[in-house]
Amino acid sequence: MNQFLRECLKKGRKTCGMTQSEVAEAIGAKRSTIAGYERGTADPDIDTYMKLCRLYGLNYVSIFNKAYNMIGDQNTSLSTEEDRLLEKFRILTYKDKSLVISLIDRFLDPPEMKIEEEPIHYITKPAYMISPSAGTGQWLPDDLPMVDIPVPDTPETEKADFILKVFGKSMEPKYKDGDLVLVKKADAVDIGKVGIFVVNGEALIKECRDGILHSINQNYGDIILEDNDTVHCLGEVIGTLNKKGIILNKTQ
Question: CA end-to-end span of the chain, whole Å?
Answer without folding.
Answer: 83
